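Chapter summary example: a protein plus shikimate-3-phosphate.
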Amino acid sequence: MYENIILIGFMGCGKTSVGKILARQLQKKFKDIDNIIEKEQKTTITELFKSKGEDYFRSLEQKAINEITQKTGQIISTGGGLPIYSSIPNKSLVIYIETGFHVILNRLSQEERDKRPLFHDEKKALALFNERTHVYKEQADFCVDADQSIQLIVHVLVDYILDQRVL
Ligand code: S3P
């Protein structure tokens, strides 16, 4: 049995959208690490990167995932860098929302790119994507092909979670 379900994947793959619908369907609480950090720090991720730097943000991510997993039965969405820089507490089922880079480019509007300091430069974002993919795969207990509609992704996940009785 797992205590929580943690969604991982690159920026713009749909972790938050999938997580919200999944939580509703499974009648679980939904938590978003970036959102928790922004609320606690009373600022945006962009501002945090500018004022305190990326390392500081990474330490907040580790603290947030440690604290949130003290509770159980939640669907938790993470920022794209969390599995790279933080250790994910045991007893969590880690699901990789796997997308191609071209799908991410199509999904992210200019406004959504602007909110992500590591997505301002498309070439750098692609390099990050290529560096990180194997880490996401290594960390995941289950991968879902996310180059399809949110409804289908959620459908696959609900089937898997209920079938395996993971939560
Ligand atoms: C980051 C991803 C962002 C956010 C921050 C850094 C990353 O979250 O945590 O901008 O390093 O990939 P999303 O994956 O929700 O965009």
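Key point: The pocket of shikimate-3-phosphate is lined by residues 11, 34, 45, 79-81, 116-118 (CB under 6 Å).
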